[in-house]
Amino acid sequence: MTQTQAPPATRIHEIDAVRGFALGGILVANIGFFADPGYATGSGVMPITEGPVALVVSTLVLTKFYVIFSFLFGYSFTLQMRSWGDRVKGRMLRRCLALFTLGVLQGFLLWIGDILTLYAALGLILLAMRNVRPKTAVVTGSVIIAVTSLLWLALAALTLLDPSAGGATAADPAAAARAQALVTGGPLDFLTFQAETYPGLALFVWLGQGPMAMALFLFGLAAGKSRLFEEPERWARLIPRVQVLGFGIGLPAAAFFTWSSTSNGGWQLVGLAVNNVTSLLLAAAYVVTLLQLVRRVPAVGAALSPAGRAAASNYIGQSVLMCLVFTGYGLALAGSLPPLAVMGVAALIFTLLLTLSAWWMRGHRYGPIEYGLRRVTNLSA
Q1: Where is the DUF418 domain (predicted)?
Q2: Neighbours of 101 (CB within 10 A)
C-alpha cells in the first residue's frame, strides 16, 4: 500500500463537524434512559414515552444519529489505512482491543447501553474486508439491511396473523421502582444496577444494532475509498435530491416509526422494518444539510469540529456528566425531572462539552482518551 497524502484540513474539519453533530444527537437519544431507569426492568417501556418531547425525540433523533456515527467509523478507517500503510492490521487489532476494553469499563461503570464493544467487534470484520471494492461494500451493506428488514416484516406478519404471539410484556412497577432506587442510591447501589443490567442489555444492543452498524461501516468504507467528503464537488449536485428523499420520505416514515413504537405486536415490527431503511435517508439529509450550513456559516463548523476531533472523549464525557446528574454518583435526579427539563440538561451538557473541547483542542492534537487509544494503537510513547 502506498502512502497517500492527507486530505486538506478544511475537509477534515467538515468530517469532524459532522461527527460532533452526531455526538449531540446521541446525547439526546441516550439521556432519556438515564432520566428514567425503569426501562431496564424488561417491561418494554421506553423513557419519555408521552407528550410532545417524546414525539420529537422519537421521530427526529432515535436511531438516526448512531447511523451517522457508524458511517463515520467506516469512513475514518479508510483515513487510518492511508496513514498506517502496511501496519494497518496490527494497529487496527490493537485499537479494537482498546475500544473493547473501554466499552466494558463504561458498560459496568457508567452507561449500560455502551456501543464501543460492538464497534470493536465489528471493526475486526471491517479489517478483514478492508480490500473490497467500494461497489462490493455498498452491495454487501445493502443486502444486510434488506435481509434484516425482511426478517422484521416476516415476524410482523406472523404476529399480525396470530396476535397472541406478539403481546407486550406487562410493566412491572416493583421492578421499575427497584431500578430507580438503585440508580439514585449511593455509588455502590448504582454499580449493583450496572452489574445486573449491563450483560443482558449488551447482548440486546449487539443483536439489535449490530447488523445496521455493520452495514453503515461498509457504506463508510466505500465512501472513504471514493473520497466522498474530500471531493464534495463530485456529488454537490445531488444534495437537493438527497434532501427531497431524506425529508420527503424519511420524515413521514420516522413519524410512522414513532406511532408504531407505541402500539403492540405486529405494527411495532413493521415500524422497525420501515425505519431500518428510511432512517438512512433522513440521516443523509441531516448530513448534507449540515455540510451546507457549515460552508455558509463557518462558525457552526468551528463550534462542532473540536468535539468531533475528540469523539471518544466526548462520548465517555457524556456518560460521566449524565451519571453525575441522574445517578447516585452525583445529584441522583433520575425520575424527578419532566421531559422538557431533561432536554434542557442535554443542551447544557452538550454546550459544556463543546466549550471544553474547543479549549482542550487549542493546545492539543488529540482528546484525552484519543491520546490513550493512539498510544495503544501505535505502541509508542
Answers
A1: 223-378
A2: 14
